[in-house]
């Protein structure tokens, strides 16, 4: 994508809800795009975690896991789950969950919509545009961008509904049920909780 994942920032009391949403989409994009560095793991581990809601609980669980996580072990887990030789253990691509195959019609439709938003994959990006990290990054852009023509709630709702809502829960289930998921267990639970909150909020908008 033409946008890149920004440095991780966490919600402060003077930040609005929209900034917090953008930050969380950015964090999920970073964690699903590549195994996290030890610096990122330590940053999450030092973050505040309070509140008793489902999303807050999921965040607290990730913070707790990061307190003892080792980047080298997490890298091994990432490579086992998402890379591997041949077919990955768990797919992170929308087309796979929507059609059963990669590079199918859902990806073509996504590329059309991205083009209308003025977004395209940069040459250095290997993954196709329907990778969960790329989609989270697009959502971050649609929330954080100053482009009022494209970055607005209606566009966010349409993009999420058209390209994420139908399959992200299936992806989360696949990850949660995989026996090798350790670090990515709380990551996935955070993603599921956040996506559920987004769906509910969009339904009310």
TrEMBL record:
Record's keyword terms, sorted: Chaperone
Pfam families the record matches: Nitrate_red_del
Domain of life the protein comes from: Bacteria
Keyword hit for Protease: no
SUPFAM superfamilies: TorD-like
Protein name in the entry: Molecular chaperone TorD family protein
Keyword Chaperone among record annotations: yes
Family annotation (InterPro entries): DMSO/NO3_reduct_chaperone, TorD-like_sf, TorD/DmsD_chaperones
């Amino acid at each position: 994508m033409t946008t890149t994942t920004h440095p991780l920032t966490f919600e402060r009391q003077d930040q609005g809800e929209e900034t917090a949403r953008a930050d969380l989409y950015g964090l999920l994009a970073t964690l699903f795009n590549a195994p996290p560095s030890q610096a990122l793991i330590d940053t999450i581990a030092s973050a505040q975690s309070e509140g008793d809601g489902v999303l807050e609980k999921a965040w607290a669980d990730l913070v707790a896991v990061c307190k003892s996580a080792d980047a080298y072990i997490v890298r091994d887990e990432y490579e086992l789950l998402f890379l591997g030789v041949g077919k990955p253990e768990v797919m992170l691509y929308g087309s796979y969950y929507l059609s059963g195959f990669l590079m199918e019609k859902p990806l073509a439709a996504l590329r059309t919509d991205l083009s209308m938003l003025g977004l395209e994959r940069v040459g250095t990006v290997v993954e196709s545009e329907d990778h969960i990290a790329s989609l989270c990054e697009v959502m971050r852009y649609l929330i954080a961008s100053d482009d009022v023509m494209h970055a607005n709630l209606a566009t966010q709702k349409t993009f999420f509904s058209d390209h994420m809502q139908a399959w992200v829960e299936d992806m989360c289930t696949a990850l949660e049920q995989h026996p090798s998921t350790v670090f990515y267990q709380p990551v996935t639970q955070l993603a599921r909780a956040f996506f559920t909150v987004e769906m509910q909020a969009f339904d009310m908008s």
